[in-house]
Design goal:
The protein is an alpha/beta fold. Helices cover about 40% and strands about 15% of the residues. Helix 2 runs antiparallel to helix 10, helix 3 runs parallel beside helix 10 and helix 4 runs parallel beside helix 5.
């Protein structure tokens, strides 16, 4: 019997987010031991979570029968002090993806527009189309954002401009000059969303918190996550930083208990573990350099990355992806991002990186 329900017509044009394949699924499918598989698909921290976060989660587990603090009071205060903003500048979500969706609830109506970059994070067009907005995509420039082109694409109907810096899935980094020009040139009626999920991997990021701190740019909103460098992807917690009045509006559409108590405890503890962040940053920098050198030797084109992953052009991506899986290495095809010949490889431990390159080398030599 066909479905008798009338669905939201926006679903007809809604992109579908395809997550990286979990280790358990691949192990079952290929009959491989769980521990023999390396997952380099989802930009996770190969060192795992902070030991301090692990201990905090263990302590918090005894109270999991209680509802969490819906306002994230302790975490909010701690993060506000770290960022040197007011607690009222912060909102928390079940991952930064939820925070991005809250923007649609608060700002978008049918007939509005959002401006995105070609090869952008797929959640941005999902949010736009979910709320009936038209999605204006600006062609990429060297696989990255053309911020001046995006500024020129803004109209009276534009409500949000989404910019990931560094960008996922390409790893590209917009210049300081272009970021400043976009912030300065954007009309007041348009919200600029700077998605900084990978900002902690940068040695010298563009500092924009001061503009939020002093209230100069009420149309500037920054999103960040604890999923990447902090290694808390399984707990799902991210946050947004913006003008207090805008944050208050987002709070009206936020689910009451959207961030669980274990996530709050783990995130608060992770903020104190500078040693873990330092080790992660060092492992990532060494891993990126290893992949650059190794991919060049294999004759595989790549996009220079400022994140914790690298985009490699492997040609028949379906075949290469499948062959890597057979060898126990999970990577991420990005055809859904408009890059049908490219594979995104997360930076792992040195051993994982070497195993990936060895497997990729076998595949490339076999196809020659």
């Amino acid at each position: 019997m066909p479905l008798p329900l009338k669905l939201n017509p926006a679903l007809d044009v809604l992109p579908v987010y395809q997550p990286g394949r979990p280790i358990e699924e691949v192990a079952r499918e290929l009959g491989l031991p769980f521990g023999s598989i390396d997952k380099l698909a989802s930009n996770e921290n190969p060192l795992g979570p902070s030991p301090m976060a692990m201990e905090a989660v263990r302590e918090a587990a005894g109270n999991m029968h209680l509802y969490p603090d819906g306002n994230c009071h302790y975490l909010r205060g701690k993060l506000a002090r770290k960022l040197v903003v007011e607690p009222e500048n912060l909102i928390f979500g079940n991952g930064s993806n939820e925070v991005l969706e809250l923007l649609g609830h608060a700002l978008l109506q049918p007939g509005d527009e959002i401006v995105i970059a070609q090869y952008c994070f797929v959640v941005y067009p999902i949010v736009g189309r979910l709320f009936g907005a038209d999605v204006v995509s600006v062609p990429a420039k060297d696989y990255g954002h053309d911020l001046l082109g995006m500024l020129n694409a803004v109209t009276d109907r534009t409500r949000i401009v989404f910019v990931a810096n560094p960008n996922n899935p390409t790893g590209t980094l917009a210049s300081r000059e272009d970021v400043v020009a976009l912030i300065s040139g954007l009309p007041e009626h348009v919200l600029l969303v700077l998605d900084e999920a990978y900002v902690e991997y940068l040695d010298d990021p563009v500092e924009v918190m001061g503009l939020i701190r002093n209230g100069d740019r009420p149309n500037l909103f920054v999103t960040r996550t604890f999923s990447k460098i902090y290694g808390l992807a399984g707990l799902r917690i991210g946050y947004g930083v913006g003008h207090p009045e805008f944050i208050a509006a987002l709070e009206k559409v936020r689910e009451p208990f959207n961030v669980n108590s274990l996530a709050q405890a783990g995130a608060a503890a992770a903020l104190d573990d500078d040693e873990h962040l330092g080790r992660t940053r060092a492992v990532n920098a060494a891993g990126l350099e290893y992949f650059r050198v190794a991919l060049r030797k294999l004759g595989i084109k790549y996009v220079p990355s400022s994140g914790n992953f690298i985009l490699a052009r492997v040609g028949d991506v379906g075949s290469v992806f499948a062959e890597l899986q057979k060898r126990g290495v999970i990577t991420r095809p990005v055809a859904g991002y408009g890059l049908p010949e490219w594979l995104r490889i997360s930076v792992g431990t040195p051993a994982q990186n070497e195993r990936c390159i060895a497997a990729l080398g076998e595949i490339v030599r076999r196809e020659e």
